[in-house]
Design goal:
binds calcium ion, 8-stranded mixed sheet
Length: 446
Amino acid sequence: MTAPLNDTHDPSLRSWVESAGARGTDFPIQNLPFGVFKGPRSGDQERIGVAIGDQILDLTACIRRQLLAGLPDDLAEACQKRTLNRLMALGPPAWSALRWRISELLRDGESGQAWLRPAAEACLVPMPSVELLLGVAIGDYTDFYASIHHAANVGRMMRPDNPLLPNYKYVPIAYHGRSSSIVVSGTPVRRPSGQTRTEGADAPVVGPTARLDYELEAGFFVGPGNRLGEPVDMARAEDHLFGVCLVNDWSARDIQAWEYQPLGPFLSKSFLTSVSPWIVTMEALAPYRVPPAPRPAGDPPPAPYLDSAENRRAGAIDAALEVALVSARMRQQGLAPIRLSRSNLQHLYWTPAQLLTHHASNGCNLRPGDLLASGTVSGPEKDQRACLLELTWRGTERLELPTGETRAFLEDGDEVILTARCERNGYATIGFGECRATVAGAPSSD
Ligand code: CA
């Protein structure tokens, strides 16, 4: 089941944290995403926090001040860990109870707990004063290929007459990614070196990639795992999903083109993957759930194990995604980042529940904190292409920047910024924060 709507989604709720009511904030009281931070003092340990406006509610401090009293012991214990994995393992009833309590603590007005405000205020930390961390020990990372528009565009470059391979509409395609090189937003991406072969050449050369690209994706964090050998039904799939972050699956297209056959991408992807620090919970996303994009006439229906009435009703997420870029020269000239494309999670051919159920369908055990990424979330329109490979059509249609510079792929000093917002009439607008990183030069060889 998708998480139901409740009082925590009420659009009339206001927080006494003033910045949570500011126009355009990603973190109003209806959002309450989880993350892990460190600081502001050196020597401070990593703590779990919840974003509210431009502040963080420190959950360890809340527990010390008895603000979460009455919640089950294992939940209180999980809130004091240095990563979110224990909390993720507890499942929807525990997450929901915690969300309810935090919402009450931060509420203004009669439905809140005004007498607790002074104690809760003492648990706030200004977000700019701390370091936001990768809050999850990610055991395994799987990157799907769930946008049919992305798959068709990339396929068309290689096989103009037959862009989609015959399996695409039956089976959610994925490769197993590298979890050790997943980093939090803000970590620079170093231009990787590798083997590349120019068309027509006999042998490859080794050197820095000339075709560094971003991929705009969403990441779904696994909550409670499943036992080895025990698949997860569609009806239970969302009970195993904790929340969603932004993912940038940096890709070296020239390395990828040479290495990917026959087993798929390897070093062209594993050098770095960036994620946003705040994880928006599935419960926070309840108001923005929508039916999956209709399958074109003639497409096969999903196999019974990937189908459910609930998935047809509300399996997709209406989240608008954007990519922006600022070059070093733009930064020097004080120019704002320019938007390269915008897309929506609704465009995916497969829903998060289908990705999870398919992943576990052979009995593969997923574990709390595992990351399932969507794959590049391109939409049907040209301005919805969610990586440079598609936007510049393999570098043949260069983009123009406001400085007069052009781009086929990323240059050193370019900063890529991913954002996402959920909007729906009659509900609050919530955001995901940012996933950003700047391209640094290749490591020097001496
Ligand atoms: Ca990808």
